[in-house]
């Protein structure tokens, strides 16, 4: 079974600053996907960024980038130039590649507040 | 198509009553998932459909829970004899085979009093 751990319950950052959200996971799989999902106060979860485990290059999407350390089973999210709209809960999630079920295993989430 | 739609958005029910939630996925998506999210926790997988076939159920899904997806389109999640511990946000997500991104609905917030 896979587990995803987000040990920081909440963080706060000043607008325009950079913040890093931490995530660790445990799995015996060799190939998998990792995700960061954002859940704004309206509660609809949206995908922020995705990383394929077999790719060494860290994924980047505009102001969002990850630091994927496969050996350490670490997957942190860096948000650059933080904006007020980044205020949300952020969930780290794991997905197996094998098998028909593409279910996600989520961490507990972290509440990020961006201060004006 | 504006995304995954869930109804109702909020439901308050008395303990012991039955409730049913509906999820309308993105129209061309063949995979549909139900998750449960309690306060301060991440979503937990409940069950998965590929088209109309229910292929996996979590051990979290007790006998009081049943889910259907007739004709492989919308899905319903029914909870019989609700208990206070069933109070949670129930999220539905859909995706396409071969595509890793799942699209989530806004959820149904259930409160059992």
Q: Rg of chain A, please?
A: 14 Å
User: Would you tell me the structural class of the helices and strands of chain B?
Assistant: mainly beta
* Largest pleated sheet of chain B: 7 strands, mixed
- In DSSP terms, counting alpha (H) and pi (I) runs of 4 or more, how many helices of chain A? 0
Describe this entry's structure for a reader:
The complex is a heterodimer of chains A (about 120) and B (about 110). With about 120 residues, chain A is mostly beta strands. In chain A, about 0% of the residues lie in helices and about 50% in strands. In chain A, strands 2, 5, 6, 10, 11 and 12 form a six-stranded mixed β-sheet that branches. In chain B, strand 9 and strand 10 form a beta hairpin. The mean pLDDT of chain B is about 95. Chains A and B meet through strand 5, strand 6, strand 10 and strand 11 of A and strand 4, strand 5 and strand 9 of B.
What key attributes describe this structure?
A: 116 residues; mainly beta; six-stranded mixed beta sheet; four-stranded antiparallel beta sheet; B: mainly beta; seven-stranded mixed beta sheet; 11 strands; globular
Brief overview:
The complex is a heterodimer of chains A (116) and B (113). Chain A is mostly beta strands and 116 residues long.
Map the helices and strands.
The complex is a heterodimer of chains A (116) and B (113).
Chain A: E1 3-5, E2 10-14, E3 19-21, E4 24-26, E5 32-39, E6 46-52, E7 60-61, E8 64-69, E9 74-79, E10 88-96, E11 105-106, E12 110-115
Parallel strand pairs in A: 2-12
Antiparallel strand pairs in A: 1-4, 3-9, 5-6, 5-10, 7-8, 8-9, 10-11, 10-12
Chain B: E1 5-7, E2 10-13, E3 19-24, E4 31-37, E5 44-50, E6 53-57, E7 65-68, E8 75-79, E9 88-95, E10 103-104, E11 108-112
Parallel strand pairs in B: 2-11
Antiparallel strand pairs in B: 1-3, 3-8, 4-5, 4-9, 5-6, 7-8, 9-10, 9-11
